[in-house]
């Protein structure tokens, strides 16, 4: 297959190369998007089987690509801004909006991929019966914490002091009016809370790693609702490369049935395919950026 991987990039690597990137901004250089060089694709999950299926399809289409793996969620967008890669696929719109606002960047979505529902698990329980008065562990990263709290609020378990918040925090919860107590923990620790007997909202990335059965979820958010739009996963690039035919053709290959089947297998059947026009994605991103400003 016509696929190459290069060494994992980290924040330290990008910091060391940022001066070079900045000093060459005014120079006229060819990028992969403008030449026959491989398209450099950044991701944090290149170990998943769907990438091998995807690579085979790209080879059949005669598109050369080079996978650039990252060890954390912060650096793939930095790498895109610094022209270390041409496109990335690892994030949803809410994450991109937070990055753009925080970094003063203008990265854009070019294609949608999937939504992964966020779910509540409680060992030994198949309903909410008896949950009143319990502590519920939720991921403490800004995006998933807000999404988890909104999941609890939508199901009457917590009451928010103000409705309509995209990313509520525990401080936004009216504890006296709520049925459960929200306990923020590191996302990886939610499964530990689950194993200790506490109800826990577990990020999809950790569900399968912890050996949980997605079918055992008591609650999950509705991926088809308007409230789920911020969590549409995307391919993202810079405005300068957004209309490049090779990059867009590559991104569209992710929608091939063979890739979709592999995604379902690796996600335990939880992934929900999303096919939204770029204009919709841009509008959602703009709205989220305004809310984050």
From TrEMBL:
<protein>
    <submittedName>
        <fullName>D-methionine transport system substrate-binding protein</fullName>
    </submittedName>
</protein>
<dbReference type="Pfam" id="PF03180">
    <property type="entry name" value="Lipoprotein_9"/>
</dbReference>
<keyword id="KW-0564">Palmitate</keyword>
<keyword id="KW-0449">Lipoprotein</keyword>
<comment type="similarity">
    <text>Belongs to the NlpA lipoprotein family.</text>
</comment>
<feature type="signal peptide">
    <location>
        <begin position="1"/>
        <end position="23"/>
    </location>
</feature>
<dbReference type="InterPro" id="IPR004872">
    <property type="entry name" value="Lipoprotein_NlpA"/>
</dbReference>
<keyword id="KW-0732">Signal</keyword>
<keyword id="KW-0472">Membrane</keyword>
């Amino acid at each position: 297959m016509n696929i190459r991987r290069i060494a994992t990039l980290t924040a330290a690597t990008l910091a060391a190369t940022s001066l070079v990137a900045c000093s060459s901004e005014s120079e006229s250089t060819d990028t992969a998007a403008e030449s026959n060089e491989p398209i450099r694709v950044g991701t944090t999950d290149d170990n998943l089987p769907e990438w091998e299926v995807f690579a085979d399809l790209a080879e059949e289409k005669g598109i050369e690509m080079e996978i650039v793996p990252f060890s954390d969620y912060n650096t793939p967008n930095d790498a895109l801004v610094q022209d270390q890669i041409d496109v990335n696929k690892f994030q949803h719109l809410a994450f991109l909006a937070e990055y753009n606002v925080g970094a003063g960047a203008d990265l854009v979505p070019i294609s949608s991929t999937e939504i992964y529902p966020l779910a509540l698990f409680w060992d030994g329980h198949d309903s909410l019966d008896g949950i009143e008065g319990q502590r519920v562990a939720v991921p403490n990263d800004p995006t998933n914490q807000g999404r988890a709290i909104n999941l609890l609020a939508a199901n009457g378990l917590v009451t928010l002091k103000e409705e309509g918040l995209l990313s509520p925090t525990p401080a936004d919860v009216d504890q006296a009016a709520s049925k459960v107590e929200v306990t923020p923990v590191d996302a990886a620790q939610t499964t530990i809370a689950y194993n200790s007997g506490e109800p826990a909202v577990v990020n999809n990335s950790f569900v399968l790693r912890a050996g949980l059965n997605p079918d055992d979820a008591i609650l999950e958010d509705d991926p088809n609702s308007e409230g789920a739009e911020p969590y549409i996963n995307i391919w993202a690039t810079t405005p300068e490369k957004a209309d490049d035919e090779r990059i867009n053709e590559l991104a569209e290959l992710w929608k091939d049935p063979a890739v979709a089947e592999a995604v379902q297998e690796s996600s335990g059947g939880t992934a929900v395919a999303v096919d939204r026009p770029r204009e919709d994605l841009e509008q959602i991103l703009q709205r989220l950026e305004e809310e984050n400003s």
